Amino acid sequence: MLIGELSRRTGVSTRLLRYYEAQGLLNAERGTNGYRCYDDDTVVTVRQVRALLDAGLTTEVIRAVLPCARGEQPEIEMCADVRAILNRVLADTDERIGDLQRSRSVLVGYLGAKA
Asked: What is the dihedral sign for C-alpha 5, 8, 9, 15?
């Protein structure tokens, strides 16, 4: 299928699909006319990428995790290094949450209000 069809089937803009390809998340064959051509499995891959982005993962992390993703949701099979990668992302997320909670406490103090 061409990029326009993939966009219609996934609801993802052609610009984002090109970006995903540039990030190594999607593979496209090139026709003799130079157009990108995707197989039907790419629809699932795009949905996996969107779900992983929604989970807060970067495209760099997704590139490492994607080979272990199964299904559209996706479920992650704990392939080599994936558990360590996801644990690192979780620790970073917890640290950001702590930073936000500290910022919130300071702002509440400035307002003289209770949390």
From this structure: positive
